[in-house]
Specification:
The chain contains 10 helices and 29 strands. It is an alpha/beta fold and 572 residues long. It has a 17-stranded mixed beta sheet, with no helix packed on it. A 4-stranded parallel beta sheet has the order 14-16-18-20, with no helix packed on it.
């Protein structure tokens, strides 16, 4: 458009010059209107116009008075002067028309008629109260000042930038282990731990183990496209913020290993229908597990262990039809395990170290996806249901330190995937089922401190992976089976505190080379400790060999301290 205007003006002036040169008297007609120019150009134009007018008038007078050569020369000279003035006008026009237009300032781009402060307040007061924004001592006020001090025109994510800056100031960002890029001029999606989509909106914020110290502000709500928030293993304090309730796309929330207080399951969490993983282990959270927990039907992981949660477990847990990992251990939960947990496709349930009572619901054992059950250190009572045999994929069964009673069901022999079986410190009666011949992976077996009778199960020593066998303080009888020397990885064998009789079987060379502790005291074992067992001590394999080798009338002869390193005196 500038080029067209300049060309039109130059063409018009050229035509005017031609007319004035070829048509005498034409200069006396009305002059065309010209675009207003700078003072210098206007002066040149006035001068040229006066000159042209003067010279043409003079030319006309001379033409009327005489037609001499002198008069003609004067006319030609005047016209040349006019041409020179017009050329100056054209040069001025070219200079003005070709100069680039001034770039509009930022106010013209995004503030309109407002100041920068007014513009920011109009956006941010819908998120944070104005008084807090204007308080320079608050994280919000610091974030507001940060935006005031930096260019925001062209930034399409001012709210998001504000929310992240507020988090930075609220958690002492200067002391973070890694704060690369934060509060720089670059787009916030380039800040450490921030991952964005193409819009660009933050979808992931991962600042785990980064020395954050402070409170997560409610302005976290500005990250409304967030799908993953991981602030684990920091020093996050105060309560779980209400602002999380607006993160309606959130799938993973990891706040474990912090210093959080207040409700473990606030309303801001129980309304997040997209949440798949909720991790708040190892804080100081309290309150109960509300019935609204059943709203989280996308939940696959619920970790709230090592807190101060109280009350009972609601039946609405049965609504969590996608839940696989349930961890509420080391809290103060009481009451019964709801039978509705039998509707959940659990793989791992951990509620140990609580105050749970009543029996283990048989419905739990219909959940054949289970791989780990950890109910230890509660007040559960009653029998172990025979349906335990349905859990053929179960790898970890820990029921120790409860009040469980009755017989250990023989169906436990079907749980051949077990790696850990702990039934110690209960009130089991009867015999230990000798049903372990098909086990391949069992490493840890503990039935200590029960009321069990009968003999030591020989099939236990057919398991190639067995390492730890604890059968202390029961009422077992019979002899130590010869098969005890077969497991190549056996490290601990505790048989103390029983009614075992007979002698200690000798072993072949190369057997039990991983044995570290063999406890045989408080039994009725007699004879002499085999030399093959003492050799394990001499070869520094066996650290502890305890037997009833003390007193004036030892039950078993064993060289102290070269073979047996601790001798117990038989009771009268």
């Amino acid at each position: 458009q500038k080029s067209e205007a300049m060309n039109s003006t130059i063409l018009f002036l050229a035509m005017a010059m031609t007319i004035m040169l070829l048509v005498p008297g034409a200069h006396g007609q009305q002059q065309p209107k010209v675009r207003k120019l700078s003072p210098k150009s206007s002066s040149a134009s006035s001068s040229a116009s006066s000159s042209a007018s003067s010279s043409v008038s003079s030319s006309a007078s001379s033409s009327n008075s005489a037609n001499s050569c002198d008069d003609l020369e004067m006319i030609i000279a005047d016209q040349k002067a006019t041409i020179t003035d017009l050329e100056m006008i054209i040069a001025d026009l070219e200079s003005n028309l070709c100069s680039p237009a001034p770039t509009p300032g930022p106010t013209e781009l995004c503030y309109g008629d407002d100041t920068k402060e007014e513009y920011l307040l109009s956006i941010l007061t819908s998120i944070t109260d104005e008084a807090i924004l204007l308080d320079e001592d608050t994280p919000q006020g610091m974030a507001f000042d940060y935006l005031l001090d930096n260019d925001i025109c062209g930034k399409t994510t001012i709210e998001q930038r504000y929310g992240l800056a507020t988090l930075y100031f609220a958690t002492n960002g200067l002391s973070w282990t890694n704060n690369e890029g934060w509060l720089g001029e670059n787009q916030e999606c380039e800040w450490y731990g921030v991952i964005c989509d193409t819009n660009p909106r933050a979808t992931d914020l991962v600042l785990a183990t980064n020395n954050l110290d402070g409170k997560v502000p409610n302005e976290i709500s500005t990250l409304f496209m967030l799908e993953k928030l991981d602030l684990s293993a920091n020093s996050i304090r105060d309560t779980i913020p209400d602002g999380l309730s607006l993160l309606t796309r959130l799938e993973v929330l990891d706040l474990q290993k912090n210093l959080l207080e207040g409700p473990a399951f606030p309303n801001s969490i129980t309304g997040l229908s997209t949440l798949e993983s909720y991790r708040v282990n190892s804080n100081s959270l309290s309150g109960t597990v509300p019935s609204e927990i059943g709203n989280l039907q996308s939940l696959e992981e619920l970790w709230a262990a090592d807190n101060e949660v109280t009350g009972t477990l609601p039946t609405e847990l049965g609504n969590l039809i996608r839940l696989k990992y349930f961890e509420l251990q080391e809290n103060k939960i009481s009451g019964a395990l709801p039978s509705e947990i039998g509707r959940i496709p659990l793989e791992d349930i951990r509620v140990y170290s609580n105050f749970l009572q009543n029996t283990i619901p048989s419905q739990l054992f219909s959940v054949t996806s289970l791989r780990s059950i950890r109910f230890e250190k509660n007040f559960l009572y009653g029998p172990l249901p025979s349906q335990i045999g349905l859990l053929t994929d179960l790898e970890n069964l820990r029921l120790q330190e409860n009040n469980l009673s009755g017989q250990i069901p023989s169906e436990i022999g079907r749980t051949t995937s077990l790696e850990t079986l702990r039934l110690d410190n209960n009130f089991w009666v009867g015999t230990i089922p000798d049903v372990f011949q098909y086990f391949e992976n069992l490493e840890f077996f503990d039935i200590s401190n029960n009321l069990l009778t009968g003999s030591i199960p020989t099939t236990l020593f057919s398991i190639p992976a067995i390492r730890l066998v604890y059968m202390s303080n029961c009422s077992l009888s019979g002899a130590i089976p010869e098969e005890y020397a077969n497991p190549p990885l056996l490290r601990d064998l505790w048989l103390d505190g029983n009614g075992i009789t007979g002698t200690v079987p000798s072993i072949s060379s190369g057997k039990l080379e991983n044995l570290n502790e063999l406890l045989l005291h408080d039994n009725f074992v007699s004879g002499s400790m085999p030399e093959s067992i003492c050799d394990l001590r001499f070869e520094d394999f066996l650290d502890d060999l305890w037997s009833d080798c003390g007193g004036l009338n030892p039950k078993i002869a064993c060289d102290f301290p070269n073979c047996c390193n601790r001798c117990f005196e038989a009771e009268c």
